Amino acid sequence: MASRSSRSMWMRSLVCLSLASATAFGLAGCGGSSTGPQRLAVSGAVTVAGQPVAEGSIKFVPASGTTGPVAAAMIREGRYSLPTAEGPVRGRHDVVIELKPAAVPAPSATSTNSGPKGGGTSNSVFYQTSVEVTVGTLDLSVEESQRIAR
Length: 150
Known about the structure:
single chain; alpha+beta; Immunoglobulin-like; 5-stranded mixed β-sheet; 1 helix
């Protein structure tokens, strides 16, 4: 009978060891990951009416159906870059581009928009568009018709 008792004790020890190992491996697998949706690295060029944006900012706001944080970056010499840790999540986003006054292009002769001309005021100018965010390069081009009031 002693052997039956030893076998039972050995089986319980094995089960406990297996559960402890599974728990430890499961926790180790979770240690390096962050909570929430996975962010993506994106970068690209930004133009308004065909001209590179000298200075400004770009903000990716998740649109309906996309869940995640807002991501933003500075635009310098017509380019922006967001590393993975700061980037937007995969999906549809409303994008707001802010031009600093010195970076605002002069309206074309046919433009009906009234507002800042070539940096003549202290107010920034905003444009909005919508994009599908994926990994890699995401060049954005907006037109005067996409200017929004702020």
